[in-house]
């Protein structure tokens, strides 16, 4: 019997520098029964230096995050959310790697494996007539509002893409993967 997945934690991260091992903001949406049920956005103090390149992408500066929670402080309040469903992101390999690196850097032993899916990969199957499958391109083609590289806006847009794919009849089971958070890599298939 095929397992039914009904709760999805759609998330996006922004990073302070090229190492992509810390976050300076996170956005999350909960999707249940084909609807966005909750949204969350938080600036995060990455406790490291920022590169001007990254600041130019997302606009987050060290001054904006200096009094914000660090990742371990934030994790205590969001861990249960990540535990509550399948993780989804756009270009999910990036966000899963960032999450894995943050957990490992801070010595947080959450879990070894987590199921996830990527809306970019799903978009390649559901939206073949667009020039590319970048988040902003897909959102433009579906008239989904987007303040790109704002983690809150990106997570909402990604959640809306996921809902659109479900409305098109996509079965997520073919897109599920398992991420090994301890080693920072994707396994071949979800288990």
Main-sheet strand order equals 3-2-1-4-5-6-7
CATH topology: Nucleotidyltransferase, domain 5
**CATH class annotation:** Alpha Beta
Shape assignment: globular
Instruction: Name the average pLDDT.
Output: 94
Rg from alpha-carbon coordinates: 16 Å
- What gap, in angstroms, lies between the N and C termini? 14 Å
Keywords:
191 residues, alpha/beta, Nucleotidyltransferase, domain 5, seven-stranded mixed β-sheet
Task: Annotate the secondary structure layout.
Layout: E1 7-14, E2 25-32, E3 35-43, H1 52-58, H2 62-65, H3 71-83, E4 86-89, H4 92-105, E5 113-118, H5 119-126, H6 135-142, H7 151-167, E6 177-180, E7 185-187
Parallel strand pairs: 1-4, 4-5
Antiparallel strand pairs: 1-2, 2-3, 5-6, 6-7
Helix pairs in contact: 5-7
Describe the fold and architecture.
With 191 residues, the protein is of the alpha/beta class. It has a single domain, classed as Ribonuclease H-like superfamily/Ribonuclease H (Nucleotidyltransferase, domain 5). The chain has helices at residues 52-58, 62-65, 71-83, 92-105, 119-126, 135-142, 151-167; strands at residues 7-14, 25-32, 35-43, 86-89, 113-118, 177-180, 185-187. Strands 3-2-1-4-5-6-7 form a 7-stranded mixed sheet, sandwiched between helices. The model has no long low-confidence stretch (mean pLDDT 94).
């Amino acid at each position: 019997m095929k397992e039914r997945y009904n709760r999805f934690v759609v998330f996006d991260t922004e990073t302070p520098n090229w190492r992509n091992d810390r976050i300076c903001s996170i956005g999350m949406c909960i999707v249940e029964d084909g609807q966005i049920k909750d949204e969350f956005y938080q600036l995060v103090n990455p406790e490291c230096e920022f590169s001007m390149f990254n600041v130019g992408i997302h606009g987050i500066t060290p001054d904006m995050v200096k009094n914000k929670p660090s990742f371990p402080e934030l994790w205590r309040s969001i861990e249960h959310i990540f535990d509550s469903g399948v993780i989804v992101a756009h270009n999910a390999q990036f966000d899963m790697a960032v999450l894995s690196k943050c957990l490992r850097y801070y010595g947080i032993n959450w879990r070894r494996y987590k199921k996830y899916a990527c809306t970019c990969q799903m978009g390649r199957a559901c939206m073949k007539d667009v020039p590319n499958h970048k988040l902003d391109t897909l959102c433009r083609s579906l008239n989904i509002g987007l303040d790109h590289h704002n983690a809150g806006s990106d997570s909402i847009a990604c959640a809306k893409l996921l809902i659109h794919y479900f409305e098109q009849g996509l079965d997520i089971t073919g897109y599920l993967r398992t991420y090994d958070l301890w080693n920072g890599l994707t396994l071949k298939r979800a288990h």
